[in-house]
Structure formats: C-alpha cells, structure tokens
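Example 3.2
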Amino acid sequence: MTSEPAPERILQRLDWHVIRRLDGLLQGDYRTLFRGSGVDLTDLREYQPGDDVRAIDWNVTARTDVPHVREYAEDRDLTAWFLLDFSPSVDFGTVPEERRKRTVLIDFVTTLARLLTRRGNRVGAIFYGQRVERTLPAGSGRLQVLQLIQAMQRQPIAARAPLTDLNLLLEAGHRAVKRRSLVFVISDFIGAEGWERSLDLLNRRHAVMAVRLVDPREQSLPDVGALILEDSETGEQVYVDTADRRFRERFAVAALAREAAISTAFARAGVEAVTLSTDEDLVRAIVRMATLRHRRRGPAATTGVPGAPRAA
C-alpha cells in the first residue's frame, strides 16, 4: 500500500491541473459560487421569476397583494463550512479503481477551500465517520488549506456499523456554525432515512449546498458473471449473477427508486444539490455547479462582475 502524498503535493497538483483551468473558464467570477450572505437589508423589490422564495417579505406582500423580496448588502468576506461524510460507503469506487468517492471528496474540498482562502475568506470543517469525530475551526490562508488536507487524509476508514445517520453531522453543523455561512454538505447520502428535516433546519440559517458523491456502478451493473456484492455500510454480502438480465434490470430499478427518494428529500429541505461522480472531470463538475447556481440566482447574483460562467 503506497503512502498518501503530502498535503503540499496535493495542493500543488490541484493548483496546476484544476484551479488554473477554473480561473480561465470562470474568468474570475467566483461570486457565482461563493456569494456572500449579508444581513443588512438594503431594498425591497417586486418578486421576479427565478428569485429565491426564501427572500419573500410576506408582510409587505400581504399589504400590497404583490410579492416582494428583500435584498441584502453582500458580505465581501464570508465563512464556508464543509460538513464531511467519511462513513464506510464513501470508500467505494470503481472507475478507475483509485478514484474512490473519498478521493473525489478530498480533491473537491481542497479546490473550494483554496479558491475561498486565497480571496481572504475563512473555511472550517466538521468530520463524520460513525459519529461526529472532530471539528477544524474556521481559518484563512494557505496554511489552513494544508491543515484541512492533512485532517482529511488522516480520517480513518470507518468500521462497518448500523446505517449512517447523517442527522448527527447536520445537527453538529447547526450547533457549531453560529454566524450565517456558506455550508457544503458533502456525502453520498447513503444511510438511514429522515435526514431532510435536519438539512432543512440548517438551510434556514445558512446558505446550504448539498454535494452528492456517486459512482457509476451504484446505478447499473455490467455483465461480468458471478459476483459477491457487499454492502459498504453494514458489510452484508450476497452472491449474484450479473449475467442474469432480469437481475440487472431489478438492480437498475432499485437504483432509480433510491435516486428519486434522495431527490425528493433535497426538494423537501429546499437546498441546492449537485452530483459529483467518481468518473467526472473535477473542473467540469465545478463549472457545472457554478452554472447551476448562476441560473437559479439569476443576473442579480453577479451584478457588476464581468465574465459569466461558460460551459466547459
């Protein structure tokens, strides 16, 4: 087993292969991704299609019979928190073999942390394995990013246990993050159901984005003959014959049902959600995320900032 690369090497690799490309594709318009969450009310205006419904001022709307939204002064400095799920299923990955969901998580978090801190913002993280295991207090600068990388590398592979309870991670975020912040919940969202209420409560206080880690083999199985499949959460094993077309079809149907349930949970919580696959180029994934946020927030999100995101 090869040793993990030093945090400095990981940061240098991502600076060169990912962040330099993002600088060109996004043309420096990182407010599309990292919009401040100000608290000073500056104006009221009529609601326009695409506005965030959470900004509606219901008192003014009731008085005028016309929907109005509140506008706030944008904080130039913001704090971002990463709520990180290192439960057993996050150590799954197939294409290629070394691209586990854990690897994608580390690269993604490092990239966002680097983009944020080099503009003077602060980042912190909360780590979950079988339970909430540690918190890295928010800080800024290159040293903070290196400490975050090291903490992620040192996070052990969680022992198999009863299903992951993401409520523990989300509730820890709700308790620990006091000031309104940008919160990324990064998980495969595989585990016990019922986490959407905790996600909704977190989203009422902060600007939350859910980043879901996936692997193609979680959606469909190739015909490779007899296999022993193991549940990465509980360790339960089952013998299957992937040459059986009906089995592969049942597997795909079950995967679609799981996808639908997770999408419904995100919708109930009212959070933006993006998918990050082990077989996807990280630059394209982040540009896709930026484009999604740009479209949902509309032109007001980037007023006065040159260079809208372009498709990769």
